[in-house]
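step: validate -> pass
step: tokenize input -> pass
step: predict -> running
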Amino acid sequence: MSTKIERVNRDIEKIKSKISELQTKLKELERQKTELENLAIVDAVRGVDISLNDLADLLKAMKTGAATSGQLGSKSVVPTDTPKEDSQE
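step: predict -> pass
step: emit ->
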């Protein structure tokens, strides 16, 4: 083989090795990310004072798109047109 081909073959092997190392590192980082996300979810759930049944209902409602406000039960209605009182005497 010519020296140019040998050199290119060595470069190919180096690159393949580097790709393999980076893929391994990527998988580990993705695993760490998932673990951290899971811990954040567990902390968030533990920080909310809600029964397990209500939590299950909330998650089901969120999955179906029924809960958009994150609020269980009906929303409070606040009137938007309240007459202003004159402070003149």
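step: describe -> The mean pLDDT is 83.
step: cleanup -> pass
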